[in-house]
Amino acid sequence: MPGRKQTAGNYYVGVDVGSASVRAALVDGGGTVVAHAERPIHVWEPQPDHYEQGSADIWATCCSVTKEVVRGVDASQIRGLGFDATCSLVVVDKHFQPLAVNSAGQNHRNVIMWMDHRAASQVERINATRHRVLNYVGGAMSVEMQPPKLLWIKENLPESWEKVGYFFDLPDFLSWKATGVTARSLCTVVCKWTYTPDRGWDDSFWKMIGLEDLVEDKYEKIGNHVLSPGEAVGKGLTPDAAKDLGLPEGIAVAASLIDAHAGGLGVIGADVKGHNLPCENQPITSRLALICGTSSCHMGVSESPIFVPGVWGPYFSAMVPGLWLNEGGQSATGKLIDHVVRGHVAFPELEAKAAASAHSVYTYLNSHLELIKKSLPVGFLTVDLHVWPDFHGNRSPLTDLTLKGMVVGLTLSRGLDELALIYLATIQAIALGTRHILEAMQAAGHEISTLFLCGGLSKNPLFVQMHADITGKPVVLSKEVESVLVGAAVLGACASGDFASIQEAMAKMGKIGRVVQPNHEHKRFYDKKYKVFLKLVEHQREYRSIMSS
C-alpha cells in the first residue's frame, strides 16, 4: 500500500466508528500506525434532534477500511482486532435483523445516534425518580445515554418494541458481528446503561422507569454476559467475519470501548520521562485525557471513587482496569466550530481563498488571525466578543439539556475579519468550558496537572494553544495523531495475549509527540474571559426565568 511504513513483528488492527466515518489502522507493537484508511457512513436527520444510522452500512464500511489497511500484510503477523465506536443504540430483532427506530418503518435505519436528543421528556422523568443509580452519572442522566432512548422506543414505536431481540451499544454490536458472541463490554454497560461491576443490573431502577420487561427476561435484550475491555471475546473471529474483514479466521477479538475511552487509552498512559512535565513521577491520576472531535470528552481516573456533580461517573474499570473513571463532556465542539464558520456570510469568500492557497479553511483562518492581530497576542482579539458554547445543551458540569448558545459583542460587519474573530471566540468558549469542567472535577477531589489531547481538533494548533492558555496547564499531544485508533489496537493487543495488561500495552504503544506549554503572561486576560463566561449562563438563566414567569 502506498505510504505504508515497513516494520517487522506483530500487528494489531484498530477500527474506530465515529459520528460520520469509519476508520481503521494497522498498528505495530510500538504503537506506530503503519497503515490507515477512512470512509464515510450515512447519517439521517429526519427531524430536529433525531439522528439515525444503519448498522449494515456501518459494518460494511468497517469491512472495507479493514481490508484496505491489511492488504499485502502477512496474515500470520496480525494478532488481534479491537473495536471502538460512538455510544449509539443499535436495535435488532430476535434473528439479529435491523429494526426501525423511526415512525417511517425504515428498518435499515436501526441506530439511534449518541447525539440524538429525541428522548428529552423521558430523561426528565428518569431524573425525577432520583434513583440511586443516578449517583454514578453525576446526579442526573444525560439524554445521550441509553435508558431514555429505550423508553422512547417503547412509548413511541410499540411495534418495534415487541419485535426487539437485542439492544446493543454500537461497540458491542461490532464485537458481536466479529465473533457471534453477544457479550457486552464493561465500558459500555457501566457508562451508558447503569450497570455496576459489584451489583450488576439494578432491577428496581428498570421497574421504576417503566422498563420492567427488560428484567423479566433476565436482561437478555441488553446483556447478561459482561467482559472487561481488552478481554478476548469467544473463540475469536468467525469464518464469515474473517471473510468480510479480510483477516485470518480465529484471531483474537477484544471486548470493545466507546470511542472517547479508546482515545483515553491511546494517550493517557504514555511514558512522559524527559519532557519536564508536572505529571512526571506522578500517578496516572494526575492526567486528564481530552478527546476532541465532533464532541469532546474529558476523562480523569482515580484510585477511589470521586463523585463530581454534573460529571459522569465514577465508573469502575470502564477505561483503565482497577481505576475509577469520571467523564466530563461537551456535546458539540467540532460540530459547533463547523456550524459557526460555515454558517457565516463570509464563508464562501473564506472557502475560495483557502482553496486558492491550498490550505484547509481552518489553517487559513489561523493565518488570517495572525495577520489582523497587530501588536496584540491573537487571543486578545476577542476582548469585546464572547461566546457561550452550549448550542446543543450542556453535558458537563451543568447537565442542562435546555441551555442554548449565546454570542455577545456582534457588530454589523460581515467580512472575513469578523468570521475569523467569531471562530476564535468559539474556540476560546470551548476551552473555557473545559476549564469549567476541570474546576468541578478538582473541587470534588481530582488533582490534575496535565492535559493529554487527541482527536481531530487536536490537529488545530490554535485549539491546542487556547486550551493550554485558558486552563493554565501543559498539553501533551500524541506522536500518533490517530490516538483513538491506537487505543482500539491496544485492545486487540491485549486480547491476543501479547501484553500482560492494558496498562503495559498503554505504556508501550502510547508515545508523546509534542508538548504545548501555557503562556502564563496571558493568565490575567483569560481569568477575566472566564468571569464573563460564567456571567453569560447566569444571564441566560435570568432572562429565561423572567420570560417564564
What does this structure look like?
This is FGGY carbohydrate kinase domain-containing protein. One of its GO terms (molecular function) is D-ribulokinase activity. It holds the Pfam family FGGY_C. Belongs to the FGGY kinase family. It is globular, with a radius of gyration of 23 Å. The chain has about 550 residues and is of the alpha/beta class. It has helices at about 55-70, 120-130, 145-155, 160-165, 170-180, 185-195, 205-210, 215, 240-245, 260-270, 335-340, 345-355, 360-370, 415-445, 460-470, 485-495, 500-510, 525-549; strands at about 10-15, 20-30, 35-40, 45, 50-55, 80-85, 90-95, 110, 165-170, 185, 225, 250-255, 255-260, 285-290, 295-300, 310-315, 325-330, 385-390, 405-410, 450-455, 475-480, 510-515. About 40% of the residues lie in helices and about 20% in strands. The strands form five sheets. Strands 16-17-15-14-20-21-22 form a seven-stranded mixed beta sheet, sandwiched between helices. Strands 1, 2, 3, 6, 12 and 13 form a six-stranded mixed beta sheet that branches. The model is unreliable at about 1-10 (pLDDT under 50).
Fraction in beta strands: 15-25%
Strand order of the largest sheet: 16-17-15-14-20-21-22
Q: Unreliable runs, pLDDT <50, ≥5 residues?
A: 1-8
Number of extended strands:
22
Average pLDDT number: 95
Largest beta-sheet details: 7 strands, mixed
Number of helices: 18
Shape: globular
By secondary-structure content and strand pairing, the structural class works out as: alpha/beta
Radius of gyration: 23 Å
Distance between the ends: 65 Å
Helical content stands at 25-40%
GO molecular function, one term: D-ribulokinase activity
Protein name: FGGY carbohydrate kinase domain-containing protein
Organism: Pomatostomus ruficeps
Keywords: Kinase, Transferase
